[in-house]
Here is the input.
Amino acid sequence: MACCKKKPMDEKPEVIVPFPDGGWGWLVCLATFSTQFIVLGTMNNFGVVYVELLNEFNTGKADAGNIDIFSLLFLKTRCK
Here is the structure.
């Protein structure tokens, strides 16, 4: 049964391939997801926060609405 005998394998050193990004890819992915989750979640739910801003700071509707305008402006100019 010559066909069933295992041939001894030459021991070759294990090749270690370095990560092209240094291993930071998943951390960057997690940070990006967290940022988008917080920023876009806040912007989409601004109507809930808006009423509390009016009550807490005793400001007018235009002044409280400026916060949302600035956050939208920041997001649109940052994502170009």
The first helix runs from residue 25 to 44.
